[in-house]
Predict the structure.
Amino acid sequence: MSDAWHHDFLLRNLAVSAVVSAVALRYFYVQHQWRRNMESESSARIQPMQSRIRPHFLFNSMNVIASLTRSRPQLAEAAVENMADLFRASLADARNRVPLREELEMARKYLHIEQLRLGHRLRVKWDMDAVPEDALIPVLTLQPLLENAVYHGIEPLSEGGEISIEGRDVDGVIEIRLANPALPQGAPSRAHSNHFAVDNVRERLAAYYGARAGLAIEEASEQNGWRYSVSLRFPITRDIRAGT
């Protein structure tokens, strides 16, 4: 009797263990599939949101390069190289993140091309010394915002203006503010402007970081006219493979 009881007890425990193991394996399998689906959905969301260079920038840049080819060939060559780097970045995998130093370099190359076209009408003020340049940021996050600043802010003003780019590290979160002069709200050249670039960057940040990132717009009247600013924030992350 005792042996039969022990045998039955052992079988019952084995059965319970098998059920518990099956449930646990199923749980981990479902979790694994959920993570894979989330990653796939995130990738599918990010890829269509990849930043693209606007056609008008291409046409304007080609005109600038053509005008410089004979008079200032070295500047024309530098502009071609900068354009190539920008388009190479725009065609890269949208899921890529790059060190902030690389993103800032792309932004400077873009602005250099625009300064060749607009001359003294476009002035730029940088204040990015307070942010870690090895922090990762989605590729071409700043360039479309700067392109908006030039296209909707600087170009419509006969006297041009200054674009300021300021950054800071606030408790492990990078905050970057881009500001430029603008025509008053409701002005004809602003009425048909769209916020595609701003919405695109906002959605890309949300896809990468969720609620930890954000983007805000502010328009305010100042003594010298209207000022338009875009502020973005995202947590500091680094590439482990780089040894940081």
Summary: The helical segments are 2-46, 55-71, 73-90, 100-118, 142-154, 188-191, 196-209. Residues 37-49 have pLDDT under 50 and may be disordered. The longest strand covers residues 225-235.
